[in-house]
Amino acid sequence: MKWEDMRSSNNVEEGSGGGGFGFGGPGIRLGGGAIIVVVVLSLLLGKNPLEMLALLGGGEAPTVQTQSLPPAGSGTGAAETADPQKRFVSKVLGDTEDVWGSIFQQMGTRYDPPKLHLYSGYVQSACGQGQAAMGPFYCPGDQKVYLDMSFFQELSQRFGAPGDFARAYVIAHEIGHHVQNQLGLMDEVQRKTANAPERVRNEVSVRQELQADCLAGVWGYSAAKRGLIDAKDVEAGIAAAMAVGDDRIQQQSRGYVVPEAFTHGSSQQRAQWFKVGLTTGDIRQCNTFASRDMRAAGGGSRP
Protein backbone atom coordinates (compact mmCIF):
# COMPACT_ATOMS: atom_id res chain seq x y z
CA MET A 1 0.00 0.00 0.00
CA LYS A 2 1.50 3.33 -1.09
CA TRP A 3 0.17 5.32 1.82
CA GLU A 4 3.13 7.72 1.83
CA ASP A 5 1.76 9.11 -1.45
CA MET A 6 -1.45 10.18 0.27
CA ARG A 7 -2.11 13.67 1.61
CA SER A 8 -1.73 14.18 5.35
CA SER A 9 -4.80 15.35 7.23
CA ASN A 10 -4.91 18.30 9.59
CA ASN A 11 -7.81 16.73 11.47
CA VAL A 12 -5.86 14.34 13.71
CA GLU A 13 -5.72 15.22 17.38
CA GLU A 14 -4.53 13.42 20.47
CA GLY A 15 -5.19 13.17 24.16
CA SER A 16 -4.61 10.45 26.73
CA GLY A 17 -6.09 9.38 30.03
CA GLY A 18 -4.11 7.75 32.78
CA GLY A 19 -4.54 5.17 35.51
CA GLY A 20 -7.92 3.45 35.93
CA PHE A 21 -11.21 3.96 34.20
CA GLY A 22 -13.85 5.87 36.18
CA PHE A 23 -17.24 7.41 35.45
CA GLY A 24 -17.08 9.73 38.46
CA GLY A 25 -20.03 11.08 40.43
CA PRO A 26 -22.19 8.52 42.21
CA GLY A 27 -21.26 5.75 39.78
CA ILE A 28 -18.97 2.79 40.32
CA ARG A 29 -15.28 3.38 39.69
CA LEU A 30 -13.86 0.56 37.59
CA GLY A 31 -10.26 -0.58 37.44
CA GLY A 32 -8.60 -2.17 34.40
CA GLY A 33 -9.37 -5.76 35.48
CA ALA A 34 -13.02 -4.96 36.11
CA ILE A 35 -13.33 -3.40 32.69
CA ILE A 36 -12.08 -6.57 31.00
CA VAL A 37 -14.63 -8.60 32.98
CA VAL A 38 -17.44 -6.27 31.89
CA VAL A 39 -16.33 -6.44 28.25
CA VAL A 40 -16.23 -10.27 28.32
CA LEU A 41 -19.66 -10.41 29.96
CA SER A 42 -20.97 -7.97 27.37
CA LEU A 43 -19.79 -10.25 24.57
CA LEU A 44 -21.31 -13.29 26.26
CA LEU A 45 -24.64 -11.50 26.62
CA GLY A 46 -24.52 -9.96 23.15
CA LYS A 47 -24.49 -6.44 24.61
CA ASN A 48 -22.61 -3.29 23.65
CA PRO A 49 -19.70 -2.97 26.15
CA LEU A 50 -20.03 0.83 26.16
CA GLU A 51 -23.64 0.56 27.28
CA MET A 52 -22.86 -1.83 30.15
CA LEU A 53 -19.91 0.26 31.34
CA ALA A 54 -22.04 3.41 31.26
CA LEU A 55 -24.84 1.75 33.21
CA LEU A 56 -22.40 0.45 35.84
CA GLY A 57 -20.97 3.95 36.08
CA GLY A 58 -24.37 5.47 36.79
CA GLY A 59 -24.53 7.35 33.49
CA GLU A 60 -26.65 7.11 30.39
CA ALA A 61 -25.79 4.52 27.76
CA PRO A 62 -24.06 6.33 24.90
CA THR A 63 -25.08 6.15 21.27
CA VAL A 64 -21.93 4.98 19.53
CA GLN A 65 -20.68 2.67 16.80
CA THR A 66 -17.93 0.38 18.08
CA GLN A 67 -15.85 -2.60 17.13
CA SER A 68 -16.44 -5.06 19.98
CA LEU A 69 -12.84 -6.21 20.34
CA PRO A 70 -10.53 -6.20 23.36
CA PRO A 71 -7.12 -4.76 22.35
CA ALA A 72 -4.25 -4.01 24.71
CA GLY A 73 -2.98 -0.53 25.62
CA SER A 74 -0.42 1.48 23.65
CA GLY A 75 0.86 5.01 23.12
CA THR A 76 -0.48 7.66 20.77
CA GLY A 77 0.61 10.97 19.29
CA ALA A 78 -0.09 13.85 16.93
CA ALA A 79 -0.93 13.76 13.23
CA GLU A 80 2.34 15.20 11.89
CA THR A 81 5.12 13.22 13.54
CA ALA A 82 8.11 11.01 12.89
CA ASP A 83 6.14 8.09 14.31
CA PRO A 84 5.22 5.99 11.23
CA GLN A 85 1.97 4.70 12.77
CA LYS A 86 0.70 8.18 13.51
CA ARG A 87 1.80 9.41 10.11
CA PHE A 88 -0.02 6.45 8.56
CA VAL A 89 -3.25 7.40 10.32
CA SER A 90 -2.92 11.00 9.16
CA LYS A 91 -2.28 9.95 5.56
CA VAL A 92 -5.21 7.53 5.38
CA LEU A 93 -7.53 10.05 7.00
CA GLY A 94 -6.41 12.71 4.53
CA ASP A 95 -7.13 10.41 1.61
CA THR A 96 -10.63 9.62 2.88
CA GLU A 97 -11.25 13.36 3.11
CA ASP A 98 -10.27 13.82 -0.53
CA VAL A 99 -12.33 10.86 -1.76
CA TRP A 100 -15.49 11.66 0.18
CA GLY A 101 -15.13 15.36 -0.54
CA SER A 102 -15.18 14.56 -4.25
CA ILE A 103 -18.11 12.13 -3.95
CA PHE A 104 -20.20 14.59 -1.94
CA GLN A 105 -19.40 17.34 -4.43
CA GLN A 106 -20.69 15.12 -7.24
CA MET A 107 -23.86 14.67 -5.19
CA GLY A 108 -24.28 18.44 -4.98
CA THR A 109 -23.46 18.77 -1.30
CA ARG A 110 -20.49 19.34 0.99
CA TYR A 111 -18.51 16.83 3.02
CA ASP A 112 -17.45 18.05 6.45
CA PRO A 113 -14.59 15.76 7.55
CA PRO A 114 -14.50 14.44 11.11
CA LYS A 115 -11.71 14.77 13.62
CA LEU A 116 -9.77 11.60 14.40
CA HIS A 117 -8.76 11.49 18.05
CA LEU A 118 -5.78 9.33 19.03
CA TYR A 119 -5.74 8.28 22.66
CA SER A 120 -4.22 5.77 25.02
CA GLY A 121 -6.19 3.76 27.56
CA TYR A 122 -9.42 5.73 27.83
CA VAL A 123 -10.96 8.92 26.53
CA GLN A 124 -13.91 11.23 27.12
CA SER A 125 -16.23 11.75 24.15
CA ALA A 126 -19.64 13.33 23.62
CA CYS A 127 -21.00 9.77 23.72
CA GLY A 128 -19.51 9.08 27.14
CA GLN A 129 -16.18 7.63 28.18
CA GLY A 130 -14.57 5.18 25.81
CA GLN A 131 -11.94 2.61 26.68
CA ALA A 132 -9.29 0.93 24.54
CA ALA A 133 -10.80 -2.49 25.27
CA MET A 134 -13.79 -1.55 23.11
CA GLY A 135 -11.79 -0.83 19.98
CA PRO A 136 -12.17 2.11 17.57
CA PHE A 137 -15.50 3.94 17.56
CA TYR A 138 -17.29 6.87 15.97
CA CYS A 139 -19.27 9.29 18.10
CA PRO A 140 -21.99 11.18 16.18
CA GLY A 141 -22.38 13.60 19.09
CA ASP A 142 -19.04 15.28 18.44
CA GLN A 143 -18.45 13.83 14.95
CA LYS A 144 -15.13 12.29 15.92
CA VAL A 145 -13.45 8.94 15.35
CA TYR A 146 -11.66 7.62 18.43
CA LEU A 147 -8.70 5.28 18.00
CA ASP A 148 -6.24 3.66 20.37
CA MET A 149 -3.60 2.40 17.96
CA SER A 150 -2.94 -0.69 20.07
CA PHE A 151 -5.94 -2.02 18.16
CA PHE A 152 -3.72 -2.41 15.09
CA GLN A 153 -1.41 -4.77 16.94
CA GLU A 154 -4.35 -6.79 18.22
CA LEU A 155 -5.84 -6.95 14.74
CA SER A 156 -2.60 -8.40 13.40
CA GLN A 157 -1.49 -10.70 16.20
CA ARG A 158 -4.72 -12.02 17.70
CA PHE A 159 -7.11 -11.83 14.79
CA GLY A 160 -4.66 -12.65 12.02
CA ALA A 161 -5.24 -9.58 9.85
CA PRO A 162 -1.85 -7.89 9.33
CA GLY A 163 -0.89 -5.32 6.73
CA ASP A 164 -1.30 -1.63 6.03
CA PHE A 165 -4.59 -1.97 4.16
CA ALA A 166 -6.08 -4.01 6.99
CA ARG A 167 -5.36 -1.07 9.28
CA ALA A 168 -6.63 1.37 6.67
CA TYR A 169 -9.89 -0.61 6.50
CA VAL A 170 -10.42 -0.02 10.23
CA ILE A 171 -10.10 3.74 9.76
CA ALA A 172 -12.21 3.75 6.59
CA HIS A 173 -14.99 1.79 8.33
CA GLU A 174 -15.28 4.40 11.09
CA ILE A 175 -15.22 7.15 8.46
CA GLY A 176 -18.07 5.23 6.83
CA HIS A 177 -20.10 5.90 9.97
CA HIS A 178 -19.34 9.61 9.63
CA VAL A 179 -20.57 9.48 6.04
CA GLN A 180 -23.79 7.88 7.32
CA ASN A 181 -24.10 10.68 9.84
CA GLN A 182 -23.50 13.33 7.17
CA LEU A 183 -26.22 11.77 5.01
CA GLY A 184 -28.71 11.80 7.91
CA LEU A 185 -28.89 8.01 8.07
CA MET A 186 -27.93 7.75 11.74
CA ASP A 187 -30.76 10.05 12.81
CA GLU A 188 -33.19 8.07 10.70
CA VAL A 189 -32.05 4.78 12.21
CA GLN A 190 -32.30 6.17 15.72
CA ARG A 191 -35.87 7.35 15.12
CA LYS A 192 -36.93 3.99 13.74
CA THR A 193 -35.40 1.96 16.57
CA ALA A 194 -36.11 4.23 19.54
CA ASN A 195 -38.79 1.94 21.00
CA ALA A 196 -37.98 -1.24 19.11
CA PRO A 197 -37.24 -4.57 20.83
CA GLU A 198 -33.62 -5.67 21.18
CA ARG A 199 -33.87 -8.14 18.30
CA VAL A 200 -34.87 -5.37 15.91
CA ARG A 201 -32.20 -2.99 17.24
CA ASN A 202 -29.54 -5.65 16.72
CA GLU A 203 -30.68 -6.31 13.16
CA VAL A 204 -30.65 -2.60 12.31
CA SER A 205 -27.23 -2.25 13.92
CA VAL A 206 -25.92 -5.06 11.70
CA ARG A 207 -27.27 -3.35 8.59
CA GLN A 208 -25.70 -0.06 9.65
CA GLU A 209 -22.31 -1.69 10.28
CA LEU A 210 -22.39 -3.58 6.98
CA GLN A 211 -23.14 -0.35 5.18
CA ALA A 212 -20.09 1.22 6.83
CA ASP A 213 -18.06 -1.74 5.53
CA CYS A 214 -19.38 -1.10 2.03
CA LEU A 215 -18.58 2.60 2.31
CA ALA A 216 -15.05 1.70 3.42
CA GLY A 217 -14.84 -0.35 0.24
CA VAL A 218 -15.93 2.67 -1.83
CA TRP A 219 -12.87 4.52 -0.52
CA GLY A 220 -10.75 1.42 -1.28
CA TYR A 221 -12.04 1.43 -4.86
CA SER A 222 -10.72 4.95 -5.32
CA ALA A 223 -7.35 4.04 -3.78
CA ALA A 224 -7.04 1.06 -6.13
CA LYS A 225 -7.99 3.15 -9.14
CA ARG A 226 -5.16 5.55 -8.33
CA GLY A 227 -2.66 2.70 -7.93
CA LEU A 228 -2.26 3.13 -4.16
CA ILE A 229 -3.25 -0.46 -3.35
CA ASP A 230 -2.83 -3.76 -5.17
CA ALA A 231 -4.44 -7.21 -5.10
CA LYS A 232 -2.52 -8.27 -1.98
CA ASP A 233 -3.70 -5.17 -0.16
CA VAL A 234 -7.28 -5.97 -1.09
CA GLU A 235 -6.85 -9.49 0.32
CA ALA A 236 -5.55 -7.99 3.57
CA GLY A 237 -8.56 -5.67 3.81
CA ILE A 238 -11.00 -8.51 3.23
CA ALA A 239 -9.20 -10.59 5.85
CA ALA A 240 -9.60 -7.73 8.32
CA ALA A 241 -13.33 -7.48 7.59
CA MET A 242 -13.70 -11.21 8.21
CA ALA A 243 -11.58 -11.06 11.36
CA VAL A 244 -14.03 -8.71 13.09
CA GLY A 245 -17.18 -10.65 12.20
CA ASP A 246 -19.53 -11.28 15.12
CA ASP A 247 -19.44 -15.05 14.61
CA ARG A 248 -15.64 -15.17 14.82
CA ILE A 249 -15.54 -12.94 17.90
CA GLN A 250 -18.30 -14.88 19.63
CA GLN A 251 -16.58 -18.18 18.87
CA GLN A 252 -13.37 -16.87 20.43
CA SER A 253 -15.01 -15.34 23.49
CA ARG A 254 -17.72 -17.88 24.35
CA GLY A 255 -17.02 -20.95 22.22
CA TYR A 256 -20.27 -20.83 20.26
CA VAL A 257 -22.20 -18.47 17.99
CA VAL A 258 -25.50 -16.67 18.68
CA PRO A 259 -26.67 -15.00 15.44
CA GLU A 260 -29.53 -13.24 17.25
CA ALA A 261 -26.95 -11.30 19.25
CA PHE A 262 -25.01 -10.06 16.21
CA THR A 263 -24.52 -6.29 16.12
CA HIS A 264 -21.94 -5.95 13.34
CA GLY A 265 -22.58 -8.89 11.01
CA SER A 266 -20.95 -12.23 10.32
CA SER A 267 -17.46 -12.57 8.83
CA GLN A 268 -18.97 -13.52 5.48
CA GLN A 269 -21.40 -10.61 5.48
CA ARG A 270 -18.73 -8.08 6.38
CA ALA A 271 -16.35 -9.34 3.71
CA GLN A 272 -19.12 -9.45 1.08
CA TRP A 273 -20.30 -5.89 1.64
CA PHE A 274 -16.75 -4.59 1.82
CA LYS A 275 -16.14 -6.21 -1.57
CA VAL A 276 -19.27 -4.56 -3.01
CA GLY A 277 -17.77 -1.15 -2.28
CA LEU A 278 -14.34 -2.24 -3.50
CA THR A 279 -15.58 -3.51 -6.84
CA THR A 280 -18.19 -0.85 -7.66
CA GLY A 281 -17.03 2.35 -5.97
CA ASP A 282 -20.69 3.37 -5.93
CA ILE A 283 -22.44 4.30 -2.68
CA ARG A 284 -25.79 3.47 -4.32
CA GLN A 285 -24.74 -0.17 -4.13
CA CYS A 286 -24.31 0.10 -0.34
CA ASN A 287 -28.01 0.04 0.53
CA THR A 288 -27.84 -2.71 3.15
CA PHE A 289 -31.21 -1.59 4.49
CA ALA A 290 -32.91 -2.71 1.27
CA SER A 291 -31.40 -6.22 1.34
CA ARG A 292 -33.66 -8.92 2.81
CA ASP A 293 -31.02 -11.21 4.24
CA MET A 294 -28.18 -8.67 4.43
CA ARG A 295 -26.10 -10.61 1.96
CA ALA A 296 -24.37 -8.45 -0.59
CA ALA A 297 -26.96 -8.30 -3.33
CA GLY A 298 -25.81 -4.98 -4.80
CA GLY A 299 -28.10 -2.64 -6.68
CA GLY A 300 -30.64 -0.39 -5.08
CA SER A 301 -30.93 3.31 -4.61
CA ARG A 302 -28.78 5.78 -2.76
CA PRO A 303 -28.43 4.67 0.88
Task: Please give a quick description of this structure.
With about 300 residues, the chain is α/β, with parallel strands linked by helices. It has ten helices and nine strands.
Strand order of the biggest β-sheet: 1-5-9-8-4
The pLDDT mean sits at 78
**What would the principal axes of the Cα set say about the shape?**
globular
Task: Report how far the terminal alpha carbons are from each other.
Answer: 29 Å
Indicate the percent of residues in helices.
40-55%
Using only C-alpha atoms, the radius of gyration works out to 18 Å
Number of strands: 9
What is the helix tally? 10
Model regions low in confidence, pLDDT < 50 over at least 5 residues: 17-48, 51-79, 296-303
Which percent band covers the strand fraction? 5-15%
Structural class: alpha/beta
Largest sheet: 5 strands, mixed
Whole-number count of domains: 1
Order of helices and strands: EEEHHEHEEEEEHHHHHHH
